[in-house]
Design a protein that fits this description.
Blueprint lengths: L5 E3 L2 H9 L6 E4 L16 E2 L9 H14 L5 E2 L1 H7 L3 E4 L10 H9 L6 E4 L5 H14 L3 H22 L8 E6 L4 E2 L1 E2 L1 H7 L8 E2 L8 H7 L3 E4 L6 H11 L9 H4 L3 E4 L12 H12 L15 E3 L1
Parallel strand pairs: 1-2, 1-5, 5-6, 7-11, 9-10, 11-12
Antiparallel strand pairs: 3-4, 7-8, 12-13
């Protein structure tokens, strides 16, 4: 049986393809797909005007809101290139119009292509959903057995963290912050990661969409640990927004600040990317919340996290 020609419009889907050992079948990717490294050698079929434009948090938020209001999307797709690539399978999502080309656009375009290609929607809201997405991609590629080993190994790591975290005496209040200007709490799998890692996110929306919150809500929650997991941002970009956050009223009164427990993480590659490396995110979070219990996870490199 011949394997399908795959176009991935999601960084997480590209990572899943890589984990399943199917990079040879990947013929096109989105503008954000950068892992595994071979993804950077594939034609990019999507474009975003502000990708790597160096805009501030507030400028990004303003541009996104305006673009969604005026045009309904913030991305464009190269239809001519997509036709040329002749995909049998397109991996996309319905989860978030800010994260990738909206599903309706992809579905309409796919229907007009030769074949037409199969469109697979990845829409995880939990850790188990992410694992199910891995199985779904493998199934769509006609290689369901490949997912079993990948998911099994990831599950072992998750349960190892869960078991060790359950032995801790404290569950610190952890605010996993998804955006600074305006403030957004974490949603979907984010609060679940905090929970498994031995903490509690009083502002998080487990298995639901993240939402804008007021700074007063953050002050009232009095987080003991503050983790800036800013959607689409790496550590260096998060550092810039931390400086903005320091100007917020009574920032220095937060227990996390007073106890020197403010962290910056690479959400661009990990926390906000629901693929196999979400388990790396969990392990790092465990090391942040309980360094005495998980010292090995605190030894990860500066590309993954930094202490403020």
């Amino acid at each position: 049986m011949s394997l399908p020609r795959i176009v991935s419009l999601l960084p997480a889907a590209t990572e899943i393809v890589g984990a399943l050992g199917l990079m040879e079948q990947l013929v096109g990717v989105s503008h954000e797909c950068d892992f595994p490294s071979e993804a950077n050698e594939r034609p990019r079929v999507t474009h975003c005007p502000i990708h790597n434009a160096g805009l501030t948090n507030g400028e990004v938020d303003e541009w996104v809101r305006r673009a969604l209001r005026d045009t309904g999307t913030i991305y464009s797709i190269d239809e001519a290139l997509l036709r040329e690539l002749r995909p049998d399978l397109i991996l996309t999502q319905k989860l978030c119009d800010v994260c990738a080309v909206d599903y309706g656009t992809v579905a309409r375009l796919a229907a007009a292509l030769a074949g037409p290609p199969k469109v697979v929607n990845l829409e995880p809201s939990s850790l188990s959903d992410i694992f199910e997405n891995i199985r779904g991609v493998a199934e769509a590629c006609g290689m369901p057995d490949r997912a079993q080993e990948v998911v099994a190994k990831l599950s072992v790591r998750v349960e190892a963290v869960r078991a060790r975290a359950a032995q801790t005496k404290t569950r610190p209040r952890c605010f996993l912050m998804e955006w600074v200007d305006p403030p957004f709490c974490s949603g979907h799998w984010g609060p679940e990661l905090v929970e498994i890692a031995g903490g509690h996110d009083p502002l998080g929306r487990k298995h639901e969409r993240s939402v804008q919150i007021s700074w007063e809500q953050v002050l009232e929650a009095r987080p003991e640990v503050l983790v800036l997991a800013l959607c689409g941002y790496d550590v260096a970009q998060a550092q810039r927004d931390l400086e903005l956050l320091r100007t917020f009223p009574r920032f220095n009164s937060l227990p996390a600040v007073l106890d020197d427990r403010v962290y910056l993480v690479n959400a661009r590659a990990f926390f906000a990317r629901p693929g196999p490396r979400i388990v790396d995110s969990l392990e790092l979070l465990a090391g942040i919340l309980h360094p005495e219990k998980f010292p090995e996870f605190r030894e990860k490199g500066p590309e993954l996290y930094a202490k403020a």
